[in-house]
């Protein structure tokens, strides 16, 4: 197994230097953005606005970290909340098998907390009706509103392993304000995943109806944030492994104390 893991590590490192592969991935990201490729998928029946590779990355991270709280900004149809909640349900199931003590889903300590400025009624209803809902809590409001941040901070108290995913408004100012508000909640060894950093690497004009673009996006916010927060580092092997990801430089690992 160790040999296998060493080989995986070596392959991933090699990908980072493989110009043909990285260029092919970059071409795919550019070609797939305007046709809205990422809007074509769902998780356990709820639409999820993600690339499949990033869904796999989240599955790997959740298994690795085994969080008891996942905080997500940007709910939309709820697919990413359901993905996180279903992974937490699997963690509970594995814990129950190992300990021999079953966990009532309604009593589980593991939770997903989603924040969105506009939770549409039909999305809220569908999320509430989903079998994974017992692990989900939602807050409607801007993720950078002081009252919302206070609520999240209060809810986060008492949790031991916290993972954060930022996927709401993709301007530099908003993403930076989210990083300032929520990255401090990430526990040592866990991650703050910042989605849509890819905007920095795509040609200008790809989002004509949006305020973000090259120079003004979550990646520029990450770079600024990291200058003052050495407790976080970019996990580059994740983006090398994925190749196809909307979060290059967005997998931020909080260093162990
Ligand atoms: C890309 S979607 C989220 C996709 C979702 N995470 C998924 O994977 O399916 C972005 C969401 O951010 C929300 N949003 C925009 N501005 C926001 C803000 N200031 N605070 C919180 N949510 C916001 C939008 O309403 C939208 O639902």
Concise structural overview:
This protein is α/β, with parallel strands linked by helices and 257 residues long. Helix content is 44%, strand content 15%. The two termini are 28 Å apart.
What are the key terms here?
257 residues, alpha/beta, seven-stranded mixed sheet, two-stranded antiparallel sheet, 9 strands, binds S-adenosylmethionine
Task: Provide an overview of this structure.
The chain is an alpha/beta fold and 257 residues long. The protein contains 9 helices and 9 strands. The strands form 2 sheets. It has a 7-stranded mixed beta sheet with strand order 5-4-3-6-7-9-8, sandwiched between helices. It has a two-stranded antiparallel ribbon with strand order 1-2. Helix 1 crosses helix 9 and helix 3 (52-65) packs parallel to helix 4 (79-99). The radius of gyration is 18 Å and the shape is globular. 39% of the residues are buried. The mean pLDDT is 96. It binds S-adenosylmethionine. S-adenosylmethionine is lined by residues 48-50, 73-77, 79-80, 115-118, 142-143, 167-169.
SSE inventory with pairings:
Blueprint: H1 2-16, H2 19-33, E1 41-43, E2 46-48, H3 52-65, E3 69-73, H4 79-99, E4 111-116, H5 121-129, E5 136-140, H6 146-156, E6 162-166, H7 172-182, E7 191-194, H8 218-228, E8 232-234, H9 236-242, E9 251-254
Parallel strand pairs: 3-4, 3-6, 4-5, 6-7
Antiparallel strand pairs: 1-2, 7-9, 8-9
Helix pairs in contact: 1-9, 3-4, 7-8
Bound molecules: S-adenosylmethionine.
S-adenosylmethionine binds next to helix 4 and strand 4.
């Amino acid at each position: 197994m160790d040999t296998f893991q060493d080989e995986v590590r070596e392959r991933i490192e090699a990908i980072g230097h493989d110009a043909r592969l990285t260029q092919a991935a970059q071409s795919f990201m550019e070609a797939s953005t305007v046709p809205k490729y990422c809007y074509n998928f769902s998780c356990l029946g709820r639409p999820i606005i993600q690339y499949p590779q990033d869904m796999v990355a989240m599955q790997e991270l959740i298994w690795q970290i085994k969080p008891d709280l996942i905080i997500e900004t940007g709910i939309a149809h709820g697919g990413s909340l359901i993905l996180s909640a279903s992974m937490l349900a699997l963690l509970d199931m594995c814990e129950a098998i190992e300990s021999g003590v079953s966990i009532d889903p309604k009593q589980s300590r593991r939770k997903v907390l989603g924040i969105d400025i506009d939770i549409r009624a039909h999305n809220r209803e569908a999320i509430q009706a989903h079998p994974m809902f017992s692990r989900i809590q939602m807050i409607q409001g801007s993720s950078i509103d002081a009252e919302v941040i206070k609520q999240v901070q209060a809810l986060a108290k008492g949790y031991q392993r916290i993972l954060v995913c930022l996927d709401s408004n993709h301007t530099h100012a908003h993403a930076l304000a989210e990083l300032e508000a929520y990255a401090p909640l990430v526990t040592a060894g866990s991650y703050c995943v910042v989605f849509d950093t890819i905007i920095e690497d795509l040609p200008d004009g790809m989002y004509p109806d949006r305020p973000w673009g090259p120079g003004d996006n979550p990646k520029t916010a990450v770079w600024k944030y990291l200058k003052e927060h050495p407790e976080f580092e970019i996990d580059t092997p994740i983006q090398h492994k994925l190749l196809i990801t909307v979060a290059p430089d967005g997998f931020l690992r909080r260093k162990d104390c």
